[in-house]
Write a sequence for this structure.
């Protein structure tokens, strides 16, 4: 490529895209604000308080157990990254770091928990930046691969019934589900049979894992989403079918990601109310989701904050122990990273 090619002005779409993206973001926020205003006006807040007061111990224990299982599954996302990034941190150090990152990620956004805290804590334990990037990549891929194939299966099977007011219908959902399943199969095929094992996207190298590791990714990712939905199911007092709760949670989670609102606050509630309006009262739905946020978001954040302080205090001692052991792949250079498992 000669110098004249590199100095060519950007195409019209590329120049206008930042403005278009900003306009679309504002439009989405306006729509979300409208949904939240409508939600607040149509909720019987006395019913919400009454529902919250009436939760029995059995419901709270079941929801808590499901939340604990979900966090446990998620913590093993970074355990997968141990082999993928080829580092020698023991699992007993990986699990608490991942728990802290996940709790902060859910409550304060991926930039805080998923990225900043991961780099902070793992670097203090002795990992290189390239290894931390691979661990983070593995975690993100595991989460969304689980989402892709599980959502695809649900849409294809017709387990989700969109409200009549929505533009998308059953057939469109089935087509979307089929596309998601194809995407998951393409990933599995690439991991098992592709001769090219890495790509560079925006200056970041992504290495394909083995087919076996990819299958474990999909299993763990889907399990985490299923357990999250189980928490909501219990907090709705099991009054809505579990497959429907799972599907709505997955749809609302995407809406929350698009809105860039930490914890999808208000967005998840609006989607659940819209899709469960004919089955439960608005007050019961909102109360269940408030309970879900307490059990799945706030309680873990409390323990994660304490654990973060402990990790910071012990980081120097733990790093000394880790540096006494040879790092796998230390003899290889960053320009020629090891092949992923």
């Amino acid at each position: 490529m000669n110098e004249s090619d590199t100095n060519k002005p950007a195409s019209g779409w590329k120049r206008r895209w930042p403005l278009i993206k900003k306009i679309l973001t504002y439009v989405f926020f306006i729509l979300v604000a409208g949904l939240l205003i409508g939600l607040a006006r149509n909720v019987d807040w006395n019913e919400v308080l009454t529902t919250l007061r009436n939760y029995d111990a059995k419901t709270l224990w079941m929801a808590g157990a499901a939340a604990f299982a979900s966090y446990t599954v998620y913590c093993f996302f970074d355990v997968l990254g141990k082999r993928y990034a080829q580092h020698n941190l023991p699992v007993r150090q990986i699990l608490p770091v991942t728990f802290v990152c996940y709790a902060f990620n859910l409550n304060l956004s991926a930039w805080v928990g998923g990225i900043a805290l991961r780099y902070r804590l793992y670097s203090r334990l002795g990992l290189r930046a390239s290894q931390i990037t691979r661990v983070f990549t593995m975690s993100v891929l595991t989460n969304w691969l689980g989402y892709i194939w599980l959502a695809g299966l649900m849409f294809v099977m017709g387990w989700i019934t969109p409200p009549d007011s929505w533009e998308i219908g059953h057939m469109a959902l089935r087509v979307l589900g089929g596309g998601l399943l194809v995407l998951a199969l393409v990933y599995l095929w690439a991991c098992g049979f592709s001769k090219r094992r890495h790509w560079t996207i925006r200056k970041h190298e992504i290495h394909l894992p083995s087919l076996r590791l990819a299958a474990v990714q999909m299993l763990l990712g889907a399990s985490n989403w299923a357990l999250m939905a189980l928490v909501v199911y219990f907090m709705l007092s099991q009054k809505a079918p579990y497959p429907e709760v799972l599907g709505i949670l997955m749809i609302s989670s995407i809406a929350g990601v698009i809105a860039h609102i930490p914890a999808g606050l208000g967005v998840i509630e609006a989607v659940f109310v819209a899709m469960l309006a004919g089955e439960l009262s608005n007050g019961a739905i909102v109360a269940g989701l408030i309970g879900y946020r307490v059990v799945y978001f706030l309680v873990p954040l409390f323990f994660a904050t304490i654990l973060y302080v402990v990790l910071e205090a012990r980081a120097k001692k733990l790093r000394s122990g880790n540096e006494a052991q040879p790092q796998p792949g230390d003899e290889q250079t960053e320009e020629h990273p090891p092949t992923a498992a």
Residues 1-6, 330-341 have pLDDT under 50 and may be disordered. The CA atoms of residues 79 and 94 lie 7 Å apart. The longest strand covers residues 198-201. DSSP finds twelve helices and two strands in the chain.
